[in-house]
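dumping this here before i forget
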Amino acid sequence: MINASADAEARFRACLGQTLKWEGGYSNDKYDPGGATMHGIIQREYDAFRARKSLPKQSVRLISQAEEHEIYQHSYWDEVRADELPKGVDLAVFDYGVNSGPLRAVKAMQRALGVSATGNIGQVTLDALSAVDPDELVEAIMKQRRGFLKALKTFWRFGKGWMRRCDGIEQQALAWAGTSAAVALGGFMTQPEFDGDLQAACQGKAYDETPEKPWDTPEGKSAVATGAAGGGGVVVSGVHAANAAYSGGHFDLVLFILTLASDPTFQVGVAALVGAVIGWFGRGRIIRQEAV
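structure:
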């Protein structure tokens, strides 16, 4: 009998081997939102990893195999709870997560399962997994993935590589789904050699950088609510100051300004509006909202 932990490690290494075939070596395509990338690990991610370990920054081109494996295991494999996914499904979700973010990959799987797409795998998701046909689930996940990729603004640059990667991952995932551990973990389905441009296209990170509606981001929603509250406060205090400054058919502008400036409601409202503007423009920091 295969030890559970040994089986999980073997599955991780097998799936990682498939992903690395598509990720290739070093890439720094100017159209790739991931930027400088080595074996699928982007520079920003590598910087954060080394910072957590109190290590100095260095080029991602110098990343060691041990560092790669640790990042892939903890930031991707464990994030999608791949140990608990059926064989084949683990590869489909893991590779999707590497290319477009674990959260998006999990949500795609949950939508395919017909459960709430929260991005968190709980007992409801696990129960649904136990009752689904792995082949059908792999196909449903890959269908969603292709649809998402085709809608990205960088599809013109990376689309050919992304589609080829999807075809290869789906082919291998279906070959592994439902097979015994001995068969599923034995060998990789080979792919032709890539030319440089196609390899870079397969590596391109597939992130949705601009949400469909700005107010769909947490910052956007917060900015709208804060701005509405601040604007309401400014209007109320303005009316109050105008009433105080108008007397006997005469409007005292100086009194209006002094009354307005000293009104706590006005001060809070202005601060809220400034905060809303900052939050609105700051929503861009949620770039790749579901991907990172």
